[in-house]
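Shipment paperwork, digital attachment
Item: protein structure file
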Amino acid sequence: MYEFAYTKPASAADAVRALGGEDAKALAGGQTLLPVLKQRLNRPSVVVDLAALGLTGIKVGADTVTIGAMTTHAAVAASADVQRAFPALAALAGGIGDRQVRNRGTIGGSLANNDPAADYPAVALATGATIRTDKRALAAADFFQGMFTTALDADEIITEVSFPIPAKAAYMKFANPASRYAMVGVFVAKGAAGVRVAVTGAGQGGVFRHTVMEQALSRSWSPAALDGVVTPAAGLNGDIHGSAEYRAHLIGVMARRAVAAAG
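Attachment content:
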């Protein structure tokens, strides 16, 4: 690591002030930032630890699940309220990384990082979640702006995320066996806003909606409705783990499995 200053503010206002400094970085669960620092791929002047801000907790309403930004993946997965109201969200959280990652990583940190293979962006985009910060409320469609890029300002922090509860939903992913990141993950949701299909792990620009699949499932909510849908390989990731063409095929496979699981 390079040398940096460390601060652990006790209020959101103090955290925002600290993040306004030159080259400051926020620390949530640290599952991305700490490895990056160890590899000397980033050189912040100050690391701002958000752990003391009290941004944890889960609230389940009649039609929404709201989760504090510093709530861990493990807490979301283990919540009986989330399991009852929005089981697909609890299952998604329970499939992130390994036990150590789930007990340190946070929902706000995952969304702010917007890793192109992360799981939470898929459920946020598919359900039309609202990401609230210390300044404003952002629709998921406006929040995600490309690989590792969001609408957040440098001195802005996520405080909570609110998910509308769909009538039917499921998430299926083809995970890298080592990292458990999604080589392809597909979240399907059917609710008040209609049918939405969000894909993670495959797009060069990060999470995206699959509108052709949405149209097919709007006509018939069944795995068979996707049989004629072809996902173009252009614009998809290709690497040592799988070509763009392979990922295009996996999108169809995971989408059918998700619809079947959603019922």
